[in-house]
């Protein structure tokens, strides 16, 4: 079957989303009418991404809620669909963040991935590692079944969290990130620093909280969903340790001071933001991760 996105299908997808149907329901309806699931998910994602771009470019005034129907009185720009975003509208090679100029090394539209060079100086990378080293503990992940935390065998790194603004260095980095991704400092979780030894990895996962898990509503009370991630490389492993995006066959090489940013407007695999930390084959790997929430994270 030739499965192309016709204007009629595009209109239908937008209507479904505008009526408040969740992405899973739209994909299920497309599957029921003969679409293959991955093709349907991709059609949904590209259509909604393009529609959001049109809205922000002022080409249409039609609001488009992604997920639950809008409650009256909420702002015209759909808060649920808003995501952190690096401004690439002028195809910049370099972005001046005030205290530092960074380079745009590569960008992908779907999934939204941007690779940034020179976000952190060598001294900042060293500084974060030395702050984190004495407080490393085996990494926990948020347990969506309960909202608590658990040791996760898929994640063999050690790590620690900093409070937002915990030191002047942490604060300067957080403010630079906020300017880069145009998202308030207050909407970010505390920086997490991770250390992977040889053989350690972080198996592919999504960073958003699974809406189907019973613990998710509790987690979402604090700042809503995660909508974006910035992974910053603090050193260079001898070999391995790239950040992979299996859905699109992308691997970002860990280079000191560089960062990979990705965003996800919906907590759904159609965002194609499945990603992992490939095993470290030689040496060790240090990263700092900033997760961005929909709303203020207190
Ligand atoms: O260290 C990484 O490359 C990595 C990969 C996947 C980090 C994260 N996820 C994360 O911190 O969420
Ligand atoms: Zn991750």
Q: Unreliable runs, pLDDT <50, ≥5 residues?
A: 55-80
Outline, from the CA principal axes? Answer: globular
- Number of DSSP helices? 6
* Mean residue pLDDT: 84
Biggest sheet, open or closed, and with what strands and sense?
A: 9 strands, antiparallel
How widely separated are the two ends? 50 Å
Ligand set: pyridine-2,4-dicarboxylic acid, zinc ion
State the order of secondary-structure elements, H for helix, E for strand. Answer: HHHEEEHEEEEHEEHEEEEEEEE
C-alpha Rg, in Å? 19 Å
Order of strands, widest sheet: 1-2-3-14-10-17-8-7-4
Structural class: alpha+beta
Helicity level? 10-25%
Report the strand count: 17
Multimer state: single chain
SSE order and pairing:
Elements: H1 7-18, H2 23-32, H3 37-56, E1 94-96, E2 101-108, E3 112-117, H4 122-132, E4 137-138, E5 140-142, E6 149-151, E7 158-161, H5 168-181, E8 192-196, E9 202-205, H6 216-220, E10 226-233, E11 239-240, E12 243-245, E13 250-252, E14 259-263, E15 275-277, E16 280-282, E17 285-293
Antiparallel strand pairs: 1-2, 2-3, 3-14, 4-7, 5-6, 7-8, 8-17, 9-15, 10-14, 10-17, 11-16, 12-13, 12-15
Helix pairs in contact: 1-3, 2-3
Bound molecules: pyridine-2,4-dicarboxylic acid and zinc ion.
What keyword list fits this structure?
298 residues, nine-stranded antiparallel sheet, globular, four-stranded antiparallel sheet, binds pyridine-2,4-dicarboxylic acid, single chain, 6 helices, binds zinc ion, alpha+beta
